Amino acid sequence: MINSSPVAYEEFMTYLEKLFKVTTNDIKVIVRDFHAEMQKGLSGYDSSLKMIPSFVDRPKGNEKGRFIALDLGGTNFRVLAVELDGKGKSKVTAVSKFAIKKKDMQGEGKQLFDFIADCIGDFLNENNIDRKKRYDLAFTFSFPVEQTNIAAGKLIVWTKGFTAKGVEGEDVIVLLNEALKRKSIKCIRVAALANDTVGTLVAKSYTDKNCDIGVILGTGTNACYPEKLANIQKWRGMKPEGYMIINMEWGNFNKLNQIYYDKALDEASPNPGAQFLEKMVSGMYLGELTRLIICDMIQRNLIFCDALQPIFMKEGSLGTEHMSLIEADTTTNLGEIEEFLTDNGIKSIRLHDKVVLKRLCHLVSARAAKVAAAGIAAVLTWMDPELIKKHSVGIDGTLYEKYPGFKDKMTSVFKEIYPEKSSSFDLVLAKDGSGMGAAVIAAVAAQSET
Question: Which domains, and CATH codes, for the chain?
Answer without folding.
Answer: 56-206+432-445 (3.30.420.40)
